[in-house]
Amino acid sequence: MNTLTRLLQAPPQRIVIFRALKLGDLLCAVPAFRALRQAFPEAHIALLSLPWAAEFVKLFPAYFDEFIPFPGWPGLPEQPVDPAKTVAFLTQMQAREWDIALQMQGNGTFVNAMLSLFGARLVAGYYPQHLPAERMGSPDLWMPYPQPEHEVIRHERLMEFLGLPAAGYELEFPPTPTDSPLPDALNALRGPYVCVHAGGISGRRWPAEQFAHVADRLATAGLTVVLTGTQAEATIAQTVQQHMHQRAVDLTGQTDLPTLAAVLRHSGGLVSNDTGVSHLAAACQVPSVVIFTSADPAEWAPLATHRHHAVREADATPTTIADRLLSLVRNRVNQLL
After folding, report:
1. Could you give the CA distance from residue 247 to residue 122 in angstroms, rounded to a whole number?
2. CB 327: neighbour CB atoms within 10 A?
3. pLDDT computed for residue 30 by the predictor
4. Cα separation of 199 and 177, whole Å?
5. What residue ranges do the domains of the chain occupy?
6. CATH of 184-336, one of 3.40.50.2000, 3.90.190.20, 3.30.70.260, 3.20.20.150
7. 146 Cβ partners below 8 Å, 6+ apart?
């Protein structure tokens, strides 16, 4: 019997997970979400997250029954804090009578106190390693935040700590019921293409000019280059195109999440910074080369190293990056021809 069922004396029926982060963070937690659903197939499971994640929850109906927008909390940079909204939010959460509130945000320095105000029968998750365990209450519910640890394995370990059977480390991204159509610009292509995603968090981006050199080398190898990114990253993609000698297809700002997944699935592969699209490629089983400028690949690189290569910025040159992707996608491109 798992810890949660044992302490509740019955399987939990109402579970809320707190993880208010970005796309890559949520994708890396999908194996843990999968384990939770497999352990409690009849439970109502809600994800408390940033507003953008409403789309994410809709795409994973097998794992989530509800999305709850997170209004912010002091100490968390992801969402501005509005005291009135926060008070109303806590009142609403207390009225829900949760069986389990699960903290999967991080080490809990700022948010464990918040979850304790939800009024859940049990609160579980991570706590900072430097704190004494007895401060958290039941030692069966609180796991010292494992650091360093790969992000996927870290959350799967939490499920195992709570006594839930492991569900593997594989990421996944389900196709939509109709499988999102490709943009017209791609339907008109006559040969295979690869995606180049030069955007990402400021301070964690390889220079756009370097991506341009990579893109030219891929184009010289006979592949159409497709530039992807959000609307906010349009100027980065424009810089890439301006420094290219070949022409690229620019889809920046033109793809929602399901469409971006479809673009990746039909591509030969991806070159990107360490950002959400790299985890999406891993979830879609699309070959990729991911450039790490500051984050640790041991924590964030795709686990399937036969399909994905992580390269630290110090080791990255346009030639090596392009050649690595070409070596990964050769068989895949031949299948797409």
Report:
1. 56
2. 12
3. 98
4. 29
5. 3-161, 184-336
6. 3.40.50.2000
7. 154, 157
Contacts of 2 (CB under 8 A, 6+ apart): 39, 162, 163, 164
Contact (CB, 8 A) for 168 and 304: no
Instruction: Note whether 3-161 and 184-336 share their fold.
Output: yes
Of 243, 261, 18, 337, which is closest to residue 251 (Cα–Cα)? 261
Q: How many helices (H) and strands (E) does the chain have?
A: 14, 12
Q: What fold, for 3-161?
A: Rossmann fold (3.40.50)
CA dist 115 and 98 (Å) reads 11
Query: Which residue has 């009578």 as its token pair?
Result: 97
| % pLDDT > 90, the chain | 86
pLDDT tens-digit readout, 81-101: 999 999 999 999 999 999 999
Angle at 113 between CA 108 and CA 118, to 5 degrees: 115
Q: What angle separates helix 208-220 from helix 234-242, to the nearest 10 degrees? A: 60
Instruction: Give the pLDDT score at 187.
Output: 82
- DSSP class of residue 82 equals -
| Tokens representing residue 143 in the block | 């796991």
DSSP state of 44: E
pTM above 0.90, yes or no: yes
Greater confidence (132 vs 46) lies with 46
